[in-house]
């Protein structure tokens, strides 16, 4: 029996539709949550990462990104990632140390000479060599580091030297290293979740905090604290964790795609962070924020013992020396 042209066209269309439906059924979606706003450099970098994953996998592997703490606090998202309820999360590098103590090395005061040094570390093989797999037995694996700028103190009064911190309740992440640093400088470290900092500052639960100029402006902390002190105490990168359960469910080809796409996301993020920092610095100036040129050497001297302490821990000296040698 001969088929006419219309019947043939209908048959071909049905085959293509079935093929498309099968392809869509096989496509896999991963979810990634974080606490930054959509216009933040980190979200832009993560979106570039997701776009690259989709491109390299021909749409068979996609990543949906949930910014603005839609899926909970950073700790909530990290714990969801540990259990596999969430595939990936981006959290503060300081919070990451609660899941793997070695990440605390990245928050040693004045470990990085400047932000270019921190970026060299982010782009080096050291994160994968020393950090990413160290947390595997805790349920998460590091996938990439993202630049988070230079962290400085800000408060309702100038902080030009360590003694200016005496008696001040300073918000810090849930990080032993951050608390140790603030205590060494004479302040009172007060852990507050990322999404609750504004209200904590507004309600005087804390007197100040420490973070990048972009976080200071984008999270509107500049509405409450009018003094930003350039002491540049840390340049801790943030960490993107992937659930060990999710990672092991990926094929070798998919793992390779994720790693290649991560490199693209990192570069986009770093470029946008530099641009955003310049924009946010100007916004702060326009708002009349008082900038304080702190005595960095005094802060460095007051906290120098922390690096020496960390070097005494088993295996830490090798990691610290490798970072310093970059």
What keyword list fits this structure?
13 helices, D-Maltodextrin-Binding Protein, domain 2, 11 strands, 17% strand, 5-stranded mixed β-sheet, globular, 2 domains, 326 residues, single chain
Strand content: 15-25%
Report how far the terminal alpha carbons are from each other: 75 Å
Q: In CATH terms, what is the fold-level topology of the largest domain?
A: D-Maltodextrin-Binding Protein, domain 2
Number of strand elements = 11
Tell me the count of domains: 2
**Total DSSP helices:** 13
Written description of the protein model:
With 326 residues, the chain is an alpha/beta fold. It has two domains: 29-105 and 116-146 and 238-276, Bacterial extracellular solute-binding protein, family 7 (D-Maltodextrin-Binding Protein, domain 2), CATH 3.40.190.170; 151-235 and 281-324, D-Maltodextrin-Binding Protein, domain 2 (3-Layer(aba) Sandwich). It is 48% helix and 17% strand. The chain is built from 13 helices and eleven strands. It has helices spanning 5-26, 41-56, 74-83, 93-96, 115-123, 126-132, 176-184, 197-202, 213-218, 244-249, 252-286, 296-311, 316-324, and strands at 28-33, 61-66, 88-91, 140-146, 151-155, 169-172, 188-191, 208-211, 227-234, 238-243, 290-292. The strands form three sheets. It has a five-stranded mixed beta sheet, sandwiched between helices. It has a four-stranded mixed beta sheet with strand order 8-5-9-11. Helix 2 (41-56) links the parallel strand 1 (28-33) and strand 2 (61-66). Helix 2 runs antiparallel to helix 11. The longest helix is centred in the C-terminal third of the chain and has 35 residues, at 252-286. The N and C termini lie far apart (75 Å).
